[in-house]
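cron nightly-structures :: item 1 of 1
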Amino acid sequence: MSFSAQKNKRQKKAGLPNWEGRCDMVELHDQAKRNRKNQSRRKRLSTIGRYNVFMSDGQKSLLYARVETVLANEISDGELKVGDQLPTEDSLVARFGVSRITVRRAIQNLVGRGLVEIRRGKGTFVAAPKITQELTALSGFVEDMHALGRKPTARVIGKEIVAADATVASQLALTKGERVVRIRRVRLADGVPLSFDETFLPLEIGKKVITNNLKVEPIFSLLERKYDVPLIEADYKLDAVAAEAEVAAALKIKQRSPVFRIERTSYSAGGRPVDYERLHYRGDLAQFVTRLVRKVSH
């Protein structure tokens, strides 16, 4: 008989508790708890394809959430780039071993998150991320795009002298029918048409501006740096409209597609209006944000 067994026999005969046995039981209980915890942790790490996807217990039961997570990861990691077509529905069903309904639910969620877009009759494609512009300061397109790490370019559609209609005359403090310079451009971000701009300038300064290469020279920069016309402040009006034929053609979108229309009148020293613009931003590629301060009531 081993020493441990003899010790236990003597303790039992003497009516003493078997502490060693109890300690063994406690240790086994703790080990079992640790095993269950590790097993639960491993269960939360689901493997789909070649991805390890961390999911909550609620998400784990939702197959479409798994598919959505994997595809979103591929987009964010750059495996699926902007403009790339997603695999067909049949391919995704085979890849993930799920139903068509599950795949469609995952795709709809990705559409809702702005990560992909469905083009009728063509398929599902990775969408360009929306450009977010802050409405906190007076700035031009080139400045805005540089701040966002985008490459701004421009395509000049036309530059001519026209008679000011009632709206243009009012915004530039002129008489209706006075001659003004009109400049029409398409503004691109990383080669993608983002905005169609129509700019009106008083005749004297406008004739100087249009002698420059407006494909690369921003009008704001020309006014301030070359012609010594400082821009102090601006009136800004934004609304949502359906793209008319000219705007749709310039932005390469369907007619009646939603766009943001911005009317901006910029003022120089002494409150003199020097630049009136109608800007049309693609509704699917741009969003505008601002921060408001609470007005204290007395």
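cron nightly-structures :: done
The chain has a mean pLDDT of 85.
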